[in-house]
Amino acid sequence: MDKILYYILKGATKLMHFVPIQVHYFFSDILFFLMCHVMKYRKKVIVTNIRNSFPEKSDAEVKQIMRKFYAHFCDMVFETLYFAHISKKEILKRLEVRGVDQVNQLTDSGRNVVLVMAHYGNWEWMSAAPADVNAPYYHFYKPLRSKAWDRFMLESRSRWGGLLTDKKDVYRSLMGMHRQNKVTVSGFVGDQTPKANEIQYWTNFMNQDTPVLLGAEKIAKKLDAPIFFIHMNRKKRGYYEVDTIPLIMEPKDEEPFAITEKHVRFLEEIIRRRPELWLWSHKRWKHKREA
To answer: Residues 212, 258: contact at Cβ < 8 Å?
Structure first.
């Protein structure tokens, strides 16, 4: 069954490229209506997350953010499927990446680099970023339960040269390259929720007590790798701009948790600026700190 589903996904997404992307946005509008007004997809989670993050906002403002999020999320669903077979010429037109030259200058000089990003904008399209990077680019993921979807997403994400690696193998993969004196660029999604038994640090994020993964900080310190934040902003439907922003150039000089705090605060700032672009349907605050 998984094999059949995989070939259906491959065939359907291939056919999508015979239809202008504007047509896909028509279907996105239909999906928006269904998700927002009929299925009410994770509505309770979304509203609770927004309300707790913005206690100063009225019910009308919370509802407006929710509707904008649904609209963006539906667009992203179709953009992700469309991305599976998008050409290099078209992705260069739709995804403007700035600041990668800073990363390449560091890797050319022999330094490893860590990139921190989030579930913001259309993070799936960021899989095209390795095409602009000079060094081997590792990005880490959690395998999906469906083997068909997992295979499909792996192929879609890795077709631009990125080395997708199970998140359980982060340390082993990067340290293995380091022992061979090979320079790497590694991408971490900084807003993922750690498992309850893996929580090592809590902070205040979006007005809430929040557990945070420390992977980016640990690797940056171990490899003495400068850290950049990847800020992906949506210009309009189907068009994004990405800024590669230097956060910390000498990680070994930083106090414990200072690196993590810096990228968390930066993410918080951009979410407050355009909240609809963040993944509010994620159960980010499912863990509670024990007294």
So the answer is: no
